[in-house]
Amino acid sequence: MTGDxxxxxxxxxxxxxxxxxxLSDCSFAVPRGRVAALVGPNGSGKTTLxxxxxxLSRPTEGRISVFGEEMSSSKVDLRxxxxxxxxxxxxxPWWRVREILEFGRRINPAWDAEFAVRHLSQLDIDMxxxxxxxxxxxxxxxxxxxxxxxxxxxxxxxxxxxxxDPVARQDLLQNITEIxxxxxxxxxxxTHAIDDVAAICDYVIIxxxxxxxxxxxxxxxxxxxxxxxxxxxxxxxxxxxxxxxEERRTTRExxxxxxxxxPLERDGWRIEHPTLxxxxxxxxxxxxxxxxxxxxxxxxxxAT
Length: 304
What we know:
Blueprint: E1 6-17, E2 20-31, E3 35-39, H1 46-53, E4 61-66, E5 69-70, H2 76-79, E6 82-85, H3 97-107, H4 113-122, H5 136-149, E7 154-158, H6 166-183, E8 186-191, H7 194-200, E9 203-208, E10 211-217, H8 218-223, E11 225-231, E12 242-249, E13 253-260, E14 270-272, H9 276-286
Parallel strand pairs: 3-8, 3-9, 6-7, 7-8
Antiparallel strand pairs: 1-2, 1-4, 4-5, 9-10, 11-13, 11-14, 12-13
């Protein structure tokens, strides 16, 4: 894959805040035209990474490029192609919705006023309402409209559905999918909710203990992992080409969650497909990129 095919590419990206390391040696790439999920627990460095991608923060070490061009706070034209929705959704609470849209129009040359008004009208959000009087779901929708009305080529969303009730959460995720389809933007969404990934994303990046431990197409992730089970006392080793991510034992049986590097011979194993939830949790617990050999290894350390 060439640089022209990538919307984001990082190499050995590191960010330190005095004694704390928020990101450590992070290298990954995201193809254009994807809805990618940046998955990790709170404190894993997701917000720090998004802010660097948006040109709002500088890395301590490493390289980061967006659309094949190195990102920095001084590159106004490049930053204009990126939309960033902060987790706190910084909307002035005393402003009316129409005033927020007008402010967006004034500071964004490519502002799509028709889209913003249409999107919010379809959700029955009154343009005369003050932000402080809106529900959490409505405020999230206003922030989302502002982000996409900028007509960015890359949209960075930091926990967009956080703190929403289940109905508002589902509505917001559905709207993200619809807006993405209509705008042909690339999206990178930070989340700690694995259900969000399965609902709308087709690419997954797992960030654990400040390190990238997986960055792959979602379908490939699901097809390249298996659960292998057999009797506890069978004494049979893990098949060649299978890297163990997690081991589970009962009184009678042992089960391995593995990543495959080659076709697997059944050889007495019961083979099942793991869920995305099981795969992600295994990587988060391991906090490391698996080695090429079978068996578990030592975890890499890193600050959260």
